[in-house]
Specification:
222 residues; mainly beta; Immunoglobulin-like; 2 domains; five-stranded antiparallel beta sheet; three-stranded antiparallel beta sheet; 1 helix; 16 strands
Length: 222
């Protein structure tokens, strides 16, 4: 789950496939969660259908950090499995928590709009050449925030070409540069890399990153 300002419940979905029969009743799958490193609590599935289970994590206040993991055991109470790795326990499943857990933050999200919207460009979505590439420099004064996670990036599209772009990727890095004089070839973190990408249509098109980028603030981020 990504950070965001939503203080309502969050839903975690798990697909669990095993040759063993999954326990039901008091020992059915559990999602354990902890808020701000406090004591662990758990919820049972709010929905289940064959191998699909959904868990509803209660809503939390802004600036809360939620850590969680899933625990499953077989109906005989002989084995258990935790997601993430580590931890142990049966009857109930997963009562000994793993050393690492999934986590997300309930935090305010800033949207930075850069540019005047008066100049058009064929970039960054170019399909004229297989190795087309574009680099942008976003200044700290334009982003106007401190250290934070960049969750998505978007562009205001006048027209969208229906052609798919193979090996499309989005990469970021923190930098102290104030201008670009050529392509930077090292130091990049890949945050979005599907096998192909097609611009959905005109207007604002946001791409939700598969890996958030940690913007350090007080620098320029390219």
């Amino acid at each position: 789950m990504f950070p965001g300002p939503d203080t309502g419940p969050r839903t975690a979905t798990a697909v669990i496939r095993s040759s063993y029969t999954i326990a039901a009743g008091a020992n059915q799958p559990r999602l354990y969660f902890s808020v701000n490193s406090g004591p662990a609590d758990y919820v049972n599935p709010s929905y289940s259908n064959q191998d699909t289970f959904k868990f509803s994590i209660p809503g939390q206040a802004i600036n809360s950090t939620v850590k969680y993991y899933l625990a499953v055991q077989d109906s005989e109470g002989s084995i258990s499995f935790n997601i993430t790795r580590g931890g142990s326990g049966v009857n109930p499943p997963g009562y000994s928590c793993p050393s690492e857990m999934f986590q997300y933050q309930v935090a305010n999200v800033l949207t930075a709009t850069i540019g005047t919207g008066t100049i058009s460009s064929n970039y960054p979505f170019a399909t004229y050449f297989m190795d087309a590439r574009t680099q942008y420099l976003y200044l700290a004064s334009e982003i106007n925030t401190g250290s934070s996670n960049i969750m998505q990036i978007g562009f205001d599209m006048i027209n969208a070409d229906p052609g798919a772009m193979n090996n499309f990727s989005i990469k970021f890095q923190n930098t102290s540069m104030t201008s670009l004089s050529g392509f930077v070839t090292t130091g990049w973190t890949t945050c979005f890399s599907p096998s192909s990408y097609t611009v959905p249509g005109s207007g604002w098109q946001n791409i939700k990153l598969t890996q958030p980028f940690q913007y350090q603030g007080r620098k320029s981020a390219g």
